[in-house]
Amino acid sequence: xxxxxxxxxxxxxxxxxxxxxxxxxxxxxxxxxxxxxxxxxxxxxxxxxxxxxxxxxxxxxxxxxxxxxxxxxxxxxxxxxxxxxxxxxxxxxxxxxxxxxxxxxxxxxxxxxxxxxxxxxxxxxxxxxxxxxxxxxxxxxxxxxxxxxxxxxxxxxxxxxxxxxxxxxxxxxxxxxxxxxxxxxxxxxxxxxxxxxxxxxxxxxxxxxxxxxxxxxxxxxxxxxxxxxxxxxxxxxxxxxxxxxxxxxxxxxxxxxxxxxxxxxxxxxxxxxxxxxxxxxxxxxxxxxxxxxxxxxxxxxxxxxxxxxxxxxxxxxxxxxxxxxxxxxxxxxxxxxxxxxxxxxxxxxxxxxxxxxxxxxxxxxxxxxxxxxxxxxxxxxxxxxxxxxxxxxxxxxxxxxxxxxxxxxxxxxxxxxxxxxxxxxxxxxxxxxxxxxxxxxxxxxxxxxxxxxxxxxxxxxxxxxxxxxxxxxxxxxxxxxxxxxxxxxxxxxxxxxxxxxxxxxxxxxx
Length: 510
Description:
metal-binding, 4% strand, 4 domains, two-stranded antiparallel sheet, mainly alpha, Znf_C2H2_type
């Protein structure tokens, strides 16, 4: 079992790395509609992962099972016995045995998860194709990555309702939905059409699509919370009797002077005596057990008011669900009204195209940015904006190298050289190469030491001076013959060793 304290530390680190990746995504400049939507979905996914880890971290700090307290007590007891490192070595042995048993485990599995959450680059999207993009699979071709609505199925379902005066074209249907923000939904329909079960099914289908579309196009907005607020507002207005036109119709459908509605069984009874007998039936008792107590068995109500209604008859109407769906659909249509207008304009535009032009339009990539006058400058600017959240080194093509190559060459390991003014070299290969570079050679000359192979791997000034003194004492004077072995050439092409060249230059002969 992993250490609870280590799991907490690792979870904190993962949250911080997710936050940095989220900041990189949100700081990208606005691009086309498709890319902005992809970035929002990636940001939403990362926010979900952060929330999940924050909940895990909260549970660990709550320590309901006592594992964290037990581990702290174990470490404290080991320190109290005078053997401070006994528990440390026991845990180290356990970790070593685990890695010897599973040598092929990835060094940083979280980096793979982070790279998957960030998503594919534009080059990878071109390589795999649009059909491999999970964001592209969320939308139909008619929706065009959330730019337009696809309400053809809902329009067909509307035209198949009973008791409608005339069928609506798609453009007229969009106009009806667009104008629904100021009043009730489908005010053109007669009341008898709204009281049918088919109309309730139609509203449920329309609400499901609009809710799904809002979630897909606004991944950073809590649509469910907004829907809950709209539903609570409807409940409040329903209880206060501000929503009319539904309860009265429930009684008139019987064609009698009175009617009693059973909320648990969702059924209307013509007489009070029949309703009273129904309350003792097994069918009613099972329906009450399945439903919420506040919405099922309550005192009956009649049209003539002989039996007083309860204090809060929240679901006393047969058409409560229809009224509620109408209210929540209106709350979705208001923010979607600009998209409905854009959808109508797009449909009109496509009606004016020939069949050949429609085919060519489908073959073109969606949401391609319009060519600008300074297209070359914009291309260079796009190439300069390289997405590199892991801060990987750039390759020969100016793009980040693959992560597996980064781990293979150990480029995440730092090597510091004091002789080079505390310069840091990433990776063993760069560290070995720097001993022959001018920066290290200049540092060695500043110390009065030759940059020979004897001083390879020496990075501290104190160690270099100590090694030079030791070599002098052992009579290894050959390491300081570098000055006499070095050859220099004057302006006339004559070659001298360094010492002779310096002497002649001081005398003014060169």
